[in-house]
Amino acid sequence: MQQSNQGRAVLVLEDGTRFDGRSLGAQTEQVGEVCFNTSMTGYQEIMSDPSYAGQIVTMTYTQIGNVGINPEDMESRRPWIRGFIVKESARRFSSWRAQESLSVFLTRHNIPAIEGIDTRALVSHLRDKGAMRGVLSTLDFNTENLIAKAKSFPGLAGMDLTGEVSCQTPYPWQQGLWDLEQGYRQIESGSNRKRVTVMDFGVKHNILRGLVQAGCDLTVVPTDTPAEKILAGNPDGIFLSNGPGDPDAVKHGVRTIRALLETKIPIFGICLGHQMLCLALGAQTLKMKFGHRGGNHPVQNLSTGVVEVTSQNHGFVVSDSALPDTLEVTHRSLFDGSVEGVRMKDKPVFSVQYHPEASPGPHDAHYLFKQFADLMR
Ligand SMILES: NC(=O)CC[C@H](N)C(=O)O
């Protein structure tokens, strides 16, 4: 029987691989890098993590949407994914906090999504061939057209997306972590607390909450804030956030970090912030084959030997070759041995590739926020 286009969606990769399924989001079309995340929970936090700007995300867990969408679990002001791919979306959502369904949320934000495709086959393909450019459409079903559209996406290498996701003006942040009784706690600023400037390359809210909970009063500043302006605020510490795209393309940010490193102010970086810190110190970054995205990545802390199960989301990595002498590797991935954390040998400066704020993910690495606060004391 002829299928009507209503309700159909298609995913086509740049190599011509095609998946036909049902539309789960907006009637539209988007190109981007097709990647996958292996977390079993936390789809809302993933969709609203600014680090995913420019990407079409596949969830490997087979049923998504069962707890709907709520205002508290947003990791930033809006979702940033270009498109969303799931095996099966829950027909009914159920949670005491839920206010809308996954499908309504995606449609409201004009994001195309597809369900009912063989996500295992898609992920095996991406794992073998590497992350690829692709197009997700509910409008055009012609394979040749769609391959050309997929190829029109320039790819994430060389792309600075921090300007799109960062705040436009500085703002204070005093919200602490979630508590079952009170929800998010508002924490008063005080003289016993440390004043930290957060460089917002696309920061997740739970990173800000982790810092507040560890004893920091925060001022979040836009990605293009010059070093002089940051230093004029006389902060006790500087935090370099996560964010989307290629760290090596954020030239202004790397220059700013280099200038900040002239001082003795403690600095902590996560993910994109970690990569840019390493670049500022003379290291190099590489694009990975398909990246690390999920909630169960084992990382070894090399000073204690302890293994942390971590949350990850990155497609670039600091290269092991050409690490400057000023840096010491503190953490490594037990999946592929890649660099997961560094510190400067002679300064209170350190960073990690993974996500201690979790959200979603295990809390094993939460101690890093306290480690940063301790460095400022
Ligand atoms: N979560 C992040 O900060 C990601 C950093 C960078 N965009 C990468 O893909 O590697």
Q: How many separate domains? A: 2
From the N-terminal CA to the C-terminal CA, the straight-line distance is: 71 Å
The CATH H-level superfamily of the largest domain is Class I glutamine amidotransferase (GATase) domain
What do the pLDDT scores average to? 96
Helix content: 10-25%
Structural class: alpha/beta
CATH architecture of the largest domain: 3-Layer(aba) Sandwich
Main sheet attributes: strand count, strand direction, barrel closure:
10 strands, mixed
Please, how many helices? Answer: 10
Binding site for L-glutamine: 51, 243, 245, 272, 275, 313, 315-316
GO molecular function: ATP binding; carbamoyl-phosphate synthase (glutamine-hydrolyzing) activity; glutaminase activity
GO biological process, one term: 'de novo' pyrimidine nucleobase biosynthetic process
EC number: 6.3.5.5
Keywords:
377 residues; alpha/beta; Glucose Oxidase, domain 1; Rossmann fold; 2 domains; ten-stranded mixed beta sheet; seven-stranded mixed β-barrel; 10 helices; 21 strands; 21% helix; globular; binds glutamine
Description:
- Strands 10-14-13-15-16-21-20-19-17-18 form a 10-stranded mixed β-sheet, with helices on both faces. The protein has a 7-stranded mixed barrel with strand order 1-2-8-6-4-3-9.
- 21% of the residues lie in helices and 33% in strands.
- It is globular, with a radius of gyration of 21 Å.
- Helix 8 (251-260) crosses helix 9.
- The longest helix is centred in the N-terminal third of the chain and has 11 residues, at 119-129.
- The mean pLDDT is 96.
- With 377 residues, it is of the alpha/beta class.
- It has helices spanning 43-47, 102-108, 119-129, 143-152, 162-165, 205-213, 227-232, 251-260, 272-280, 367-375; strands at 8-13, 18-23, 29-37, 55-59, 63-64, 83-86, 88-89, 113-115, 132-137, 171-173, 175-179, 183-186, 194-200, 216-222, 237-240, 267-270, 285-301, 307-318, 327-333, 339-344, 349-352.
- Bound molecules: glutamine (GLN).
- Residues 51, 242-245, 271-272, 313-316 line the site of glutamine.
